Amino acid sequence: MNFFQAQDNARRKTWMLALLFGAAVITLLLLTNVFIAIAFGWAGMQTGMTFSQTLAQVPVDSWIWISLGVIGVIGVASLYKFLSISGGGKTIAEALGGTLIHQNTQDMKQRRLLNVVEEMALAAGMPVPPVYLIPEPSINAFAAGFSTDDAVIGINQGTLDQLSRSELQGVVAHEFSHILNGDTHINLRLIAILHGILFVGMIGYGLLRAGGYSRRNGLPIVVAGIGLLIIGYGGTFFGNLIKAAVSRQREYLADASAVQFTRDPSSIADALKKIGGFSMSSHMTNPAAEQASHMFFGAAAQKFSTSLLATHPPLDQRILAIEPGWDGQFLQNSPAAMTADQRSHAERSNRAETAGVTQLADGPENKAQGIVDQVGTLSAAGLTAAQNMISNNPEQLTQAAHDPFEARALIYAMLINKEQDHSSEQQLALLGEQAEAGVAPHVTRLLPAVRNSSSEHLLMLVEMSVPALKELSFSQYKTFTANTAALITADKRVEIFEWVIHRVLTKHLHAHFEGPQNIHGRVGNINKLADDAAKLLSILASHSHEDTNEQLRAYNAGAAELGIRKPYSKQDSFDYQRMNDTLVKLRKLKPLAKPALLKACATCVLADSRVNAAEGALLQGIAATLDCPLPPSIYS
Amino acid sequence: MELIILLVIIAALAFWVVAIYNKLVALKNRYENGFAQIEVQLKRRYDLIPNLVETAKAYMSHERETLEAVINARNQAMAGLQAAAADPGNAAAMKELGSAEGMLGSALGRLNVVMEAYPDLKANQNMMQLSEELTTTENKVAFSRQAYNDQVTEYNSYRQSFPPVVFAGMFGHGTDAELLEFADSAAIQAAPSVSFN
């Protein structure tokens, strides 16, 4: 199942969840009414009336009111939770007591983890997610977020301590596949939805204790409490059923994706075996972990793992699925193994296996399809490409990308005019005035290396800088965006590359600082947006070649791919407003309609069998705006 | 029945209060993370200083007092940082760190003045590189301190606003977090102005 299919499925699942949730609510209503009826009847019997006599006396609309009350409480509870997760993935990490791992940390184990996460994010063509450290000694991890823009990875302290680099990579790959498959989107929504039906049980428990302490008339309260508690566990039952239905199968899928990606089944199998052999396994002590239990790598609580209600498949089943010949032995972490691994701490590259990289057939048609197929996937080839790009990067620039102060200077440097002329002088002067102390000289220092790097490389550096930039305070972020805008418009022209950087950065940072935007794709048929698709292809074609005939050929190739009949409209210069407006409309496409558009863009770009810098940059910008992570290996 | 409506309203209010608590926790978490970034930069700064002093010693063997003052101030600041890192935002710890950093800044400033008399030292490659790095680190310290202060201000403002102010005390968020202030010293680079009065 490819990326787009998975995204589409993720959206469909929401309907199924709604249905199950509806069933849960109805059950809760029924049980509530039944229990209150029992309570009334019992109270009535105390005064001598029979059960049915008491009930006959209760006005009919009472039941309606009670039901409305229950629905009201459930609604309020869910609404509260929806609001609390509106900040995106980081809210979960914070709720679990996680501390942010700084990109410029000096701690060796943390550095190693960050390197693993960074390689993988770049291999998938997505921004590097912030990593949080969860203060628990067990071996576990999670990923949370509505999209790649607000995604975070959480790792337990125990995971850092117990696992080797390759095992860590297996776990992280598993989490990344959740992000790319849209699982994290659903899981986050699930927390909010389930909160409504779990909450009733919590009231019940509270009433139970309150009633127990009261002398007079304590009993009805206790009964009500027990009643709500039982009702509440009815909600819990459905809640866990829903979680299990959604997450359990996905766990096998994520394990399989991780194996495929690392080309080394032993890494993730060993991680699972270590969980089995570890005294604390993957259990979480923080009570907040229960709500997010479906989001973790391993089972967070010691539930009956073979039951219907388990959020994860049993450990041994997962291991057998990866390693059919497993002997049933779990792994104990030995000090010897750990020291041997420590010696290669903080190393960047893994034995990346280049064997098995499929050679794409040469025709532009197949290549375009190949590009689209790669979207949102993790592959060993992608990892190799990412590792190569990282190691070819000047140390100065990598270091800059990892520091909040320097990362800004790095981005500013990318926006300074390529030639040393009046324009660039002007821009530097602007920075001297408007940016914080020390920024302008730092930009000057980074300029030579930046000017020497390809735009592909620079875009990779942008993705690398994202987590460091997310550490800015809100007002620093505002200053940063104002400065970047000022730099771009300083020379009165918006170049393609400037546009791409601005586009990509805004998208990634906006989610963090101003809340994730959830664009719900509604348009299933590209023909409804034929005009905008034509505009997009026209812009791409105009930059594919000097010769107008070649441009026309490229445009026609792309338009034919999409089956639209609009004419080519040659663009003499890059009009960023036009580009933005077009993309705003095209973002409304449903996931399954996007591959066709991307393939058309790719076909257009590949029509002359050459991808020049402008085309490459435009493609990246378009893919990023459409939420399609584009791995770097397409360029190899 | 009015009782039911009341129940729903109470539930809504209860959630509202829980949301306030959660936001207080989240904002506190954020400035603590912000402080951790300052820690990274300050540690880098403290690591550079012994190198600086060693290099200077070779040329400035008679200026032992000045050099020792720098090392002492640096050790003091390190202790201050450790105390502050244990409880970021704590008024006493922040003030302590602020004043220790201030003293380190002055000590470095004095060193700078003294170094003027040793042009060979100033021209030394190693020294120049260290000074360069130190300046960069100073800038980063300033920047991360600004971020931390922004985040502390956000926390304090929220905590003091209505309605959080009503509940803050009972939720364990009874006091404002303290800003971190010290004179950002571009000590090594800035040529000190000498007055002849």
Task: Describe the global form of chain A.
Answer: globular
> What is the count of β-strands of chain B?
0
Which range best describes the helical content of chain A: under 10%, 10-25%, 25-40%, 40-55%, 55-70% or over 70%? 55-70%
SSE topology string of chain B: HHHHHH
What is the radius of gyration of chain B? 23 Å
Strand residues, percent of chain B: under 5%
Q: What's the tally of helices of chain B?
A: 6
Spatial strand sequence of the major β-sheet of chain A: 1-2-4-3
Q: Tell me the total number of β-strands of chain A.
A: 4
User: Helicity of chain B, in percent?
Assistant: over 70%
- What number is the mean pLDDT of chain B? 85
Query: Using CB atoms under 8 Å apart, which protein chain pair has the greatest interface?
Result: A-B, 39 and 38 residues
Largest sheet of chain B: none
> What is the mean predicted local confidence, pLDDT of chain A?
83
Q: Report, as a whole number of angstroms, the end-to-end distance of chain A.
A: 24 Å
Briefly note the structural class of the backbone of chain A.
mainly alpha
Rg value of chain A:
28 Å
Low-confidence stretches of chain B: 185-197
Distance between the termini of chain B: 86 Å
